Amino acid sequence: MRIDLHTHTKFSDGTDSPHELMLKAAQAQLDVVGIADHDTIMGWDEAAKSVNKTGVSLVRGMEISSSYDGHDVHVLGVLFNPADPKIQLHINTMKGSRQRRAQLIVERLSVDFPISWHNVLEAAGNSTSIGRPHIADALVAQGVVKDRNEAFAQILHTSSPYYVPQIAPTTVEAIAMINNAGGKAILAHPKAVKRGFSLSDAAIEEFAQAGLFGIEIDHRDNPPAQRPELIELAKRLGLARFGASDYHGAGKPNTLGEGLTAAAVFAAAIEGTYLEVLYP
């Protein structure tokens, strides 16, 4: 089986509609795809309607923003109860928080670069979760940088004077929220040094003790040289090994299916969850 559980649609910072994503998943010969937009589940229903049309099974998820030691940490929650009160509170809180943060960043940027909030809204299109990727797209459109990667490596880097920290639950709180809602929690790209922060082994061990189910290892943002160490760490902590593309459409070079999750890990991840996988 070809299983890719980490993708994004236009409802956060991807460029494809959920239906387009499902069609592309079929073209990429994926058996299972997971939609995990940032702090929103708005794409679930449209994707669900495309399951029978495309023949691709769907895992409904969300990439939850969290904070650890002052840094942004992303946790995938899959197959949780979307009506859970704490899940709903997080979605509603983060929608406002993400937008306020983005506006503050744009205010800082506008002093030195030709960018306005209107430019960001144009770049975001129909997205319901506006954030730094849309600011990056606006910077590209204004000719300030060539692509998102350059924007995040320089102007939008966590060490940049334009950076504004995210207000979010702690990573331990995010894990608990997912578990209490009947889902499984997966740590996204823990060694993504290009994003400005790499989680220590001690931090990952803390998350494992808090109920983390697995970690993304086969992900392009984890340097290949560090993956053997991550594999050993996962074994020691009893964490499942995941692979994922983190596909965003035209926004990033990531391609569907470039990182895959083993069928046995997938079977364990969907066992006992509140939601079921949607099969054709």
From TrEMBL:
Highest taxon in the source lineage: Bacteria
CDD domains, per database record: PHP_HisPPase_AMP (cd07438)
GO MF annotation: an example: 5'-3' DNA exonuclease activity
InterPro entries per the UniProt record, alphabetical: PHP_dom (IPR004013), PHP_domain (IPR052018), Pol/His_phosphatase_N (IPR003141), Pol/histidinol_Pase-like (IPR016195)
Occurrences of domain Polymerase/histidinol phosphatase N-terminal (ranges): 3-68
Name of this chain's protein: PHP domain-containing protein
